[in-house]
Amino acid sequence: MANIRGIARTAARHGSATPFRPATAITTSHSFSLSRCASSQSAPPTRSAPAASDPVFEDLEFDSSFLTPALPESAKVATPKERFQNKTQRLPGSRYQFHPPKYDRGPLHPIQSPPSSDPTARDFVPGPFHNNRLRQTYHSTIASDIMTLAYTHTPPGTEKEPTPQRLRSWDDSSPYHKNRPLRGPRGDPVLRPLEKPITFRNVPVIRSVTLAAFMPTAIKEPDRMVIARMVTQAITGVVPEVTAVKHSVAQWHIVKGQKVGLKATLYGNTAYDFLDKCIHLVFPRIKDWEGVKGSTGDSSGNLAWGLTREAVALFPEIEANYSMYPAKLIPGYRIFVETTAKSDRHARLLLSSMGVPFQGLLRD
């Protein structure tokens, strides 16, 4: 085709009156296509687009987009973004947006807070996304058993004993004692909560579980901190927080502000999952371990115990990939269990019903 065009241009340059035509041996269809390609005139105009009644569109549906006419410019609807940008007056969101009340004003108040399952509630927490076995056992069996074990029968009409004065008053021996607040109990400046009888309203539950590790040698060996974070995240599923030293200790060669520890706090199903692994997988396999000391507790319903590096290696997440963690770099932990109980006795009752063994003298 390019050669034919070149020959036609050469003939026109030399002043040929008749355009170049190929040999008669070429067929009619070929001669038409070659003459059209070699011609300097434009191709004949094509016919207009077929109408909707043309038989070409017989197979198309009536609601096909090919048959739908285009909307005029005046009929186009503005997008929400364009409508928002074209607004001249803006409404304040604080006035026209629902905000749940900050305080509960009682069941008879006309404005009530939405339930915690409502996403607009202030205490909304998504989940739970799975059912924990230990938590199900607590709600189905343990809670009712604790109510039965801690039940104290009080005959109707019995007068309640008045609560004794727990704070000490001043003897007014000095003029500076006037209008001073009452003092705390002697020997312990912290006023502990009173133990109340367990009813269906205050059955103790697990509030949180905190794991803490302290490694003074991490100052000279930074790999200990890396391995400790890996182990903590593996057995808890929570990214731990690195903690710093609050006071300098010359015997341990640590200075205030150095990062030598970490902690991780577990809530909800994560806390119950960790306790479930400790009770059923770790505690039974610790050699020569009698149980958690009965004297543990802070007199406010919070208990604690410790795990050595040999006991931490018994967790299934560590045991499955034991070669990935150097045995000498696996840390030990102090585990703090926070409950809603008001005394250590009720907290031990809750944990012992779940399967935590206690030994030694039990402190009230």
Describe this structure in words.
Residues 1-21, 73-122, 152-190 are annotated as: Disordered. Pfam families: Ribosomal_L5_C. It comes from Sporothrix bragantina. Keywords: Ribonucleoprotein, Ribosomal protein. Residues 259-358 form the Large ribosomal subunit protein uL5 C-terminal domain. With 364 residues, the protein is an alpha+beta fold. It has a domain at 209-359: 50s Ribosomal Protein L5, Chain: A. Helices cover 27% and strands 11% of the residues. The chain contains 10 helices and 7 strands. It has helices at 2-13, 28-38, 80-85, 93-96, 133-149, 223-236, 268-282, 309-312, 316-320, 344-354; strands at residues 206-214, 241-244, 259-267, 292-293, 302-307, 333-339, 358-359. The strands form 2 sheets. Strands 2-3-1-6-5 form a 5-stranded antiparallel sheet. Helix 5 (133-149) packs across helix 10 (344-354). The protein is extended. The model is unreliable at 16-37 (pLDDT under 50).
What key attributes describe this structure?
364 residues, alpha+beta, 50s Ribosomal Protein L5, Chain: A, 5-stranded antiparallel β-sheet, two-stranded parallel sheet, 10 helices, 11% strand, extended
